[in-house]
Amino acid sequence: MTLRSRARSLVDAAYERVLRREVGDGPDHVAIIQDGNRRYARRNGDDAPDGHRAGADTTERVLDWCGELGVEELTLYAFSTENFDRPDEELDPLFDLLEAKLREFADADRVHEQGVCIRALGDVERLPERVREAVDYAEARTADHERFTLNVALAYGGRNELLGAVRAVARDVADGDLAADDVGVSEVESRLYRRPVRDVDLIVRTGGDERTSNFLPWHANGNEAAAYFCSPYWPEFSKVDFLRSIRTYEAREESWRRTRAKRAAALVRAVAEVELSEARRVAARLRDRGPGESDGVAEALATDGGDAGVAGETAD
Questions:
Q1: d(Cα 121, Cα 151) in Å, to the nearest integer?
Q2: 309 and 217 in a common domain
């Protein structure tokens, strides 16, 4: 290790400690778009499969970081529906890697020690048989675990997911199995790919692009999830980057809390102003009736509402 790389390592370690002190336990559900594997490989003079293998190593590290921060669910965008358009010489090694990693994760001691439940999201039937069998194996091996959920988005497309759910709802309504008036959030969620997931709190994208690429639109965009975009390619994604994303999420949550508090205070002030105005109007009517007209006082209070008296006391 050169002097410069050693110094950089020390600085990164110190910064990591600072960030860890700044963040809390983290969000419940993080979703990651693992972008940049191929660009990482090209930059290093390697082939695309080498980049995907390097990215798989990062995935294992992220699982450990989630455990440290109390994240309960992680969704990884491993293979999109658009990825089917890539050449066979790239797809075949990628399918081999997906198959191998699913089986490896399913058999890993730490996966079972940490109670990780592995689930696939997407149009899995479009995948090669060997990958589908690996999905079934991983899901069956970890089905009883409940402490942490790892969702692997395979053959996933957000628009296709929503379109499929809407079509399923429409069929059930047409068949008389579901009343149109009963269609709600739960009815749509129950018809999303394979199984529903909890709302996404934070969505992270590596590789420099600032877009969410049709990823979990119902669970992320519908929940107004915080978004964190960073430039490192996925194989280079570090714990410092991950902690920065958590800090972004917590800063957004704190901003929302302040905004909600300001709105609540403004609402209280608006209500108080209305009540005060009403109380003054009642008081003016009482003065106009002249002294000694107690019946008129009772009538005015009955007409204008007993709350005006409370508002009047508060105003005084």
A1: 7
A2: no
Catalytic sites, residue numbers: 35, 83
- Residue 298: domain span: 261-315
d(CA 171, CA 173): 5
- Share of the chain residues as helix, strand and coil, in percent rounded to the nearest 5: 65, 10, 25
Say yes or no: 275 and 185 in one domain. Answer: no
Q: In the listed set 260, 279, 302, which residue is the last one of a domain according to the structure?
A: 260
What is the Cα–Cα distance from 21 to 31, expressed in whole angstroms?
Answer: 23
- The answer to whether residues 125 and 17 belong to one domain is yes
Quick one: 80 and 202 in the same domain? Answer: yes
Number of domains the chain is built from: 2
* Contact by Cβ (8 Å): 147, 67: no
Q: Please report how the helices 239-289 and 3-22 are oriented relative to each other, as an axis angle in degrees rounded to 10.
A: 30
What is the full DSSP assignment across 21-59? Answer: HH--S--SEEEEE---HHHHHHHTT--HHHHHHHHHHHH
Q: Are 31 and 200 in contact (CB under 8 A)?
A: yes
State the pTM of this model.
0.75
- Render pLDDT for 174-190 as a digit per residue (tens, 0 to 9): 988 888 888 888 788 77
pLDDT digits (tens, 9 = 90+) for 47-84: 998 999 999 999 999 999 998 899 999 999 999 999 99
Alpha-carbon span 104 to 118, nearest angstrom? 12
* Residue 238 to residue 242: CA distance in whole angstroms: 6
> How far is the C-alpha of 22 from the C-alpha of 20, rounded, in Å?
5
| 245/274 same-domain check | no
